[in-house]
Amino acid sequence: MTHFWATSGHLLLDRRPGGGLVVGDDFLKAYLARPEVLPPEDACAAERALHARLMDQPQAPVAPAEIAALADPDARENWQFLLGWRERLLAEPTLEGAYARIIREGAGTIPPLFLDQLVHVILRGALDEVEDPFVVRAAECLFRPQRVSLHEGTLLLADAEIIEGHEADRHASPLLAMLGGPAVTSLDILKPANADQYWQRSDGFDMVLDLGGTPSGRAALGQALAVWVKAIHGFDVAIEPVETVKDANWRWFVGLDAEATAIGNALWQGEAPGEEPLSRVIALYRMTLPPQVPVLAAAAGAPIYLIMAMTPDKLLRIKPQNLVTGLPLAAPGPTH
Fold first, then answer.
1. Residue (of 144, 307, 126) closest to 233 by Cα position
2. H or E, element range at 285
């Protein structure tokens, strides 16, 4: 078994026989140890006592009166959110099931960071037996925004946070700005020759994915998406990249991000999205569900097309939750 993504927190989770990650005390303690949850120096005695009690028993009940007794209104708000989040994580037998339920019930009030962290750790568990570093690197796109660059005729995806750091360094150094090319050229592109380095560097998120290289980055991303679908829904799907959609009677699509959803909706309604939006489509996929999976009549016997697009400022923000609610399943729900 290859070790990677230690920062995901997967070692804090148990595994359920038959599949699925189980939230326990250690995983909950990680939230209690977050800087915004730790009582500050001027915290009241009630807040300190509450934090200490939950660090000892992370699943202990907390009465509303205990929250109301906290002196700081910001602390009361933080604790109300945290306890509500704890309740949602424990509402299902597995973390995969909890994530799916959170998305289906509505996640509009949840900070994106919390959702990204769940995707990170769920994918880490689902990729446990995957030994292809291209697939694992591609899976980073599901929980970390990517900066898209066209360099030497190929499309490159680099971690947006890492690129931002390199650009800041260049702004601070006129010499670097003068001598350097695009910031993405400062990073290593994942290739067969350096693929073994990925495992040791996986928590640095500093290797670039070539969407058109060999092996194809698009194919690797398709495999990563299939791993995600199985982790959430419990069944295998085939996801293959396509250059164009030649099916004049296409019945169902899923936008993998907000930009792609807008483009797909326009096409679905018979509108012309325009050359500029279409130029930002960077990948198309065809998904085939297993025949035994019940689907809505409108999608029966037809493939599902997946669309991926970048923003006008060349950012890719994949929304894995769209593969939770967007598939045409007649009876949605994880099988774990």
1. 126
2. strand 281-288
